[in-house]
Amino acid sequence: MTPHPAIAAVLVADALSAIALLAAMGGAVRVAAGWSPAAPGAAQLALERAAEEVSLAGRAALVLSGLATLLLILALNHVLPALIPGAMCGLGVLEAIPGGAVLLALRVAALAGLWTWAVIDKLDRANERGPLAPWSARVLLAAGALALAAALRTATSLLETDLHSPVSCCAAVIDLARAIAPQTALRLAGPWHAVVLAASGAGLAAWALRGLRSRRAAAALLGSTVAWVLLAEWVLLDVFAPYHYGLVGHRCPFCLFLPAQGFAGYVVHGALLVAILEAGALAVATACRSQLPAASHRRTVLAGRILTGALAIHFIASLLPLVVFRWRTGAFL
Amino acid sequence: MKIACEAVQVMAGEAELIRGVSLSCAAGELVLLQGPSGSGKSTLLSVMAGLRRPTAGQVTVDGMPVSRFTAHHRDLYRRRVGFLPQRLHLFEDLSALENALVPTLPRGGDPEVLLKARELLVRLELAPVGDRPVRTLSGGEQQRAALVRALAGGFEVLLLDEPTAHQDEPRVALIAALLEAERARGAAVVVAGHDPRLATRLGLARRYSLSAGCISLEAK
């Protein structure tokens, strides 16, 4: 792999994140194992100091890991296509990177894990005594392990990237679409996709804004949000993408990130990521309601609003080119 | 509001600065903490003010272990404490009045504090120099300016380290009268120092003596 500055930036951000994570996880192991808040002995006070250091280091790791992921996406979409023969967008680059799709999924999962920890940590720090400290430490250990694995996988995959063999890029997507389209049972007439998506999104938003009464309801909302995001992604590529690209049959999720599409991918996919993260935050805050009622209530209200905003932004950004096309031509593709 | 230390220990590396110190000061009480230089008085006050965490033990306010609060909540606690540190930490380019108002900045300013600060500047004979940068003031005037800052907020807990340093006899009497007024208002006042002129003028609830990090309760 060419030591391109964009790749170096990703690796450096990941390395810094890993250092912060290892420091945080070292303290988290001690907190998870020895937390005993009843007596103010020297050992417990040392753990309380360690818990604050874990919080600081963990937040630094989250920011750096998020930055590394953003830099990777920027590199995939705007830098590496020029270096890989046949690659026109991030999809072609992922083909050249060994296990590229898995790598991307792993990074998103790691980010979601660290975000979940950050939500618990923030709730914990809303109370003077930090009642969730041992739980927060355990979640950080799990999310941190995932983030370290993602960083390691990123480094090895990027260093093993094949810069010489040509890739098929969007032809692969077109072939895939042809293969699965006839088997798609949910296929509806074009405009109905938008109606179904809008109606289900509105229902989801109303559910999130109303607030949840139990952990089971929170888990159901999280599951529903994930399902809605998958539906939204499918509708985006199957119905709205031709209006974005001005080309029927182009179902590539990565070309939306290109300047020619007005960087729409950052908005539509970013909104979906935010929706999943905030549905997770809502679930976590609901689960902590018995220990931290006031802070949990504030976070669930905030999560409901952000989730609603993210769903709306995704829908509007996806739909807008269709509306413009219809207004200009009086027809649908 | 009652502030108490429960078996507080402070280590600095291998050195034990304070060992198992317990004391208390309730609302409307004035407590004196005496001891030779290096006995740990200033360290104990900084622990009570939430500026330093004990290595073992805890500081409680009305039963809440404030020294063990998470960082944000410890910051909130510190806003409720009037503190006169041994090193004054005044902003040298600001006036005495402006220095007195600095602690109100996180609250977005407070007109009542402004009024009280002006009144205290008059009572502590700083009115003529109250608008000058504190770097132009004498050591005694700077000490009184720092005392104005500690008292102007009307705090429920006052922790004062050597409040009469660099003061002559009439000014000691002024300061003693002010501390009595704060006690009468209902503040819990802890004074550290070894100025006998102050001790004889105060209506003390208790007098503690610190020696080499260990505390003992003395006769008033």
- Helical content of chain B stands at 25-40%
Low-confidence stretches of chain B: none
Query: Any idea what the CATH architecture of chain B is?
Result: 3-Layer(aba) Sandwich
Largest interface: A-B, 15 and 17 residues
Q: Work out the helix count of chain A.
A: 10
Distance between the termini of chain A: 41 Å
- CA-atom Rg of chain B in angstroms: 17 Å
Question: Which fold name corresponds to the CATH topology of chain B?
Answer: Rossmann fold
Helix/strand/pairing class of chain B, anyone? alpha/beta
Mean pLDDT of chain A: 89
Question: Cα distance, first to last residue of chain B?
Answer: 22 Å
Please tally the β strands of chain A and state the result: 0
Element order, helices and strands of chain B? EEEHEEHEHHHEHEHEE
Helical residue percent band of chain A? over 70%
Detail the poorly predicted runs of chain A. 184-189
Q: Number of folding domains of chain B?
A: 1
Descriptive overview:
The complex is a heterodimer of chains A (333) and B (220). Chain A is an all-alpha fold and 333 residues long. Chain A folds into two domains: 155 residues; 160 residues. Chain A has ten helices and no strands. By secondary structure, chain B is of the alpha/beta class. Chain B has one domain: Rossmann fold, CATH 3.40.50. In chain B, the strands form two sheets. Chain B has a six-stranded mixed sheet with strand order 6-7-8-3-9-10, sandwiched between helices. In chain B, helix 4 packs antiparallel against helix 5. Chain B is globular. Classes of the chains: A mainly alpha (333), B alpha/beta (220). The interface between A and B is medium-sized, with 15 and 17 residues.
Supply the key terms.
heterodimer; A: 333 residues; mainly alpha; 10 helices; 76% helix; B: 220 residues; alpha/beta; Rossmann fold; six-stranded mixed sheet; four-stranded antiparallel sheet; 7 helices; 10 strands; 27% strand; globular
Secondary-structure map:
The complex is a heterodimer of chains A (333) and B (220).
Chain A: H1 5-34, H2 42-79, H3 90-96, H4 100-125, H5 133-159, H6 170-180, H7 190-210, H8 215-245, H9 264-287, H10 293-329
Helix pairs in contact in A: 1-2, 1-5, 2-3, 2-4, 2-5, 4-5, 4-9, 7-8, 7-10, 8-9, 8-10, 9-10
Chain B: E1 3-12, E2 15-25, E3 30-34, H1 41-48, E4 56-61, E5 64-65, H2 71-78, E6 81-84, H3 96-101, H4 111-123, H5 139-152, E7 157-161, H6 169-185, E8 188-192, H7 196-199, E9 206-211, E10 214-218
Parallel strand pairs in B: 3-8, 3-9, 6-7, 7-8
Antiparallel strand pairs in B: 1-2, 1-4, 4-5, 9-10
Helix pairs in contact in B: 4-5
